[in-house]
Predict the structure.
Amino acid sequence: MPDHHYSLKDDPFSSHGQIARIVRQLDRGPVLDVGSAQGIFGRLLRDAGLTMDAVEPNPTWAEEARAFYRAVYTGTIEAVCESLPRQHYATIICGDVLEHTVDPVLVLRRLRELATPDATFVISLPNVAHLSVRMMLLFGLFPRMQRGILDRTHLHFFTRRTAIQMLQQAGLRAERVLATPVPLTQLAGDSARRRRILQTLSSLQRPLVALLPRLFAFQWIFVARADPASSPTRLHKP
């Protein structure tokens, strides 16, 4: 993940806010936070009484996150998977991470090996079918950006349907699908006036997300569990 712009989305309806609420409601540990960045979910869930481990490839971020987790494994999930305990985690968070991996299905299959049989996966992915992207495509544009849905470090792009298909290929079944609005308040900077304006705009877009999520969802959040008809397939490196 890029180290120059990833930060906490402080909107309670953002992926960070919604995932933190879901994990609190589940109240099942241990929790594995895959791609923890600077410890965002560790901070948000610090008072939840949950045992949490994390995986983070950026060494600087991993060191910063260490205070908020029982253990932090520095490296990509593909690289450190063998060091993690098997059938151990009751909740696994993949927040804004799978789109950065070379093979998201392989990553999820490996994570299933670390999960308890009844574990819950909480996954957020950007919605490439957002109205803004559709409009850019209409004019022949597909710009790679510093952040957002078309972040230049994204290796994969998902709609709601293709994300569910990806989960199914990994042997997971989506039990809940939630949508998030564009986190406009991240653009406020230090300006209180700008923040108030963006908070108003954010409140106006929420009904649109609820009414037409495929057009207006910025991200999808999936709450998934292992499909009883599937078993985790261990895939070895060639």
